[in-house]
Amino acid sequence: MKATALPMIRFQSVSKRYANGREALSNVTLDVVSGEMVFLTGHSGAGKSTFLKLLALIERPTRGSLLVNGENLANITRHKIPAYRRQLGMVFQDHKLLADRSIFDNVALPLVVANTPSRDVAKRVRAALDQVGLLKYEQARPIELSTGEQQRVGLARAVVTKPALLIADEPTGNLDPDLSLEVMNIFRRFQDVGVTVLIASHNVALIEKFNARRIHLEAGRLIESSSNTGEVLFDPSKFLAADVLAPGASL
Amino acid sequence: MMSWLTRHVQTLVGSLGRLSQQPLASSLTVVVMAIALALPASLNVLVNNAQAISGSWRGVLDISVYLKNSIDGVAANELIDKLKRHKDIKQVRLIKAEDALKEFREYSGFGEALEALRDNPLPNTLVVTPAPQLATPAGLDALSEELRKFPEVDVVQLDTAWVQRYLAILEAVRRIVTMIGLLLALGAVVIVGNTIRLDIQNRCDEIEITKLVGGSDAFVRRPFLYSGFWYGLCGGLLAWVLVTVAVVLLSGPVRHIASLYGSQFELSGLGFLAGLGLLVSGAVLGWLGSFVAATRHLRAVEPK
């Protein structure tokens, strides 16, 4: 099967040096298998953010190559970046919601930029909001929601396009332990339906509650990449919907 | 295709809604835009009216046609009937040789000298008033040339020099108006461009988020283009109103002045087509200004 033969993410000797001379990532090599859930850990400044920025094509590697879903990111020109980003779901620590739009419109944004027909937009936005338990707030503004709820809206927006890869930067950074666990469980549910999930977090106590591989970065170097579970990382029987792995099909 | 169209209409309406959320800033831009458009438009109205005046000073544009001495009153009247059917001639009046002599005697002061003459030296004369649409030097010359070809006609006299001078000045003024118009059009582009630039700065976050979820440059730019379009269209509409109001306010005094000169001259306004032109050029300039600004400044807003 293609999904098992090819990793969802492959870093090959990737280094990133910023213009100010700081080397944020040094010679990182690793694979993330399709359908896997991975935690990216490390202190602030260890290179977690750079790792995610390279994946989102916000930054480009200085050396090495980076493959996502079999595609070499070096081949994605500036012009093709939007189409690439539509295949990703991204969740941010500060939610990055639009304050002057309703929850519905916020979640709809990735579909709207992809020119999805209005009928489908409404259906998929409600499905995504339902998955994070916020369907009743679709007409509210982000400010009317709690921080935890806002983070779930961010999550709904990330999955509304049914991406094969979900990446999150400190998604529980501003949440108390209960809400953090709740949000993490939602991520877990997406992994259960076959989505590859990559979460940067420094919340060790929380991470330990989940059986998932940890990638530990220190000063830009990969220190540890271990699976602390013996479970099957990829199980085709877990796929509830075929379109989960084919996000481009509906675009 | 349908969803693409729906999306465009939504953005179009959405951008209008956004403008109405900042009524003061938006209306300032619209007003400046309107002034930039109204100035050349009203100058243009002025020049067009000035040109129309040259056509309405009929008395001055009349062509004097001196008939040969052999042509008597009856033959002259036959010629008049012929000329009256000519499409380029509005009116023909006969000044009989004896009337001309009488008048000359009265006003010239040569009365006694003329008594010495045995025959009337003056011919029958026709005063031809050309049709208004002929009020150009070329048109008048062509008509004079035609009149000269009649066998009854001796001399055709037409003083077009003043018309030529007047129209030459008008032509120069028209060029100046065009140049002012182009400069102000450039100004309008800059005004809208600057407003859009500020708008982009204010909405950095929104642009960044849209790019993060895969919004293309064209998608991000679209609402700004529509904003520019609305600024321009509203500016054009307001300019139309301003020019129309100015014409209405001026038409009374102008009619009075014209009547003092014995003229029926009426101030003409912008006209429907020119008004539409004002709307279209406003919209195009607004769109252009926002296109330049958005293309330039949106590139700089990238997710960090």
Architecture blueprint of SSEs:
The complex is a heterodimer of chains A (251) and B (304).
Chain A: H1 2-5, E1 9-17, E2 23-32, E3 37-41, H2 48-55, E4 63-68, E5 71-72, H3 81-85, E6 88-91, H4 103-113, H5 118-131, H6 147-159, E7 165-169, H7 177-192, E8 196-200, H8 204-207, E9 213-218, E10 221-226
Parallel strand pairs in A: 3-8, 3-9, 6-7, 7-8
Antiparallel strand pairs in A: 1-2, 1-4, 4-5, 9-10
Helix pairs in contact in A: 4-5, 4-6, 5-6, 6-7
Chain B: H1 2-21, H2 23-56, H3 58-61, E1 63-67, H4 73-84, E2 89-95, H5 97-108, H6 111-115, E3 125-130, H7 137-148, E4 153-157, H8 161-202, H9 204-212, H10 217-260, H11 272-298
Antiparallel strand pairs in B: 1-3, 1-4, 2-3
Structure description:
- The complex is a heterodimer of chains A (251) and B (304).
- Chain A has eight helices and ten strands.
- Chain A has 251 residues and is an alpha/beta fold.
- Chain A is globular.
- Chain B has 304 residues and is of the alpha+beta class.
- Chain B folds into two domains: 190 residues, no CATH class; 99 residues, Alpha-Beta Plaits (2-Layer Sandwich), CATH 3.30.70.3040.
- In chain B, strands 2-3-1-4 form a four-stranded antiparallel beta sheet.
- In chain B, helix 2 runs antiparallel to helix 8.
- The two termini of chain B are 33 Å apart.
- The chains are: A alpha/beta (251), B alpha+beta (304).
Overall average residue pLDDT of chain A: 84
**Gyration radius of chain B, in Å:** 31 Å
CATH level-two architecture of the largest domain in chain A: 3-Layer(aba) Sandwich
- Note the overall shape of chain B: rod-shaped
Q: What labels describe this entry?
A:
heterodimer; A: 251 residues; Rossmann fold; 6-stranded mixed beta sheet; 8 helices; 30% helix; 23% strand; disordered C terminus; B: 304 residues; alpha+beta; Alpha-Beta Plaits; 11 helices; 73% helix; 8% strand
What's this, in brief?
Helix content of chain A is 30%, strand content 23%. By secondary structure, chain A is α/β, with parallel strands linked by helices. The longest helix of chain A has 16 residues.
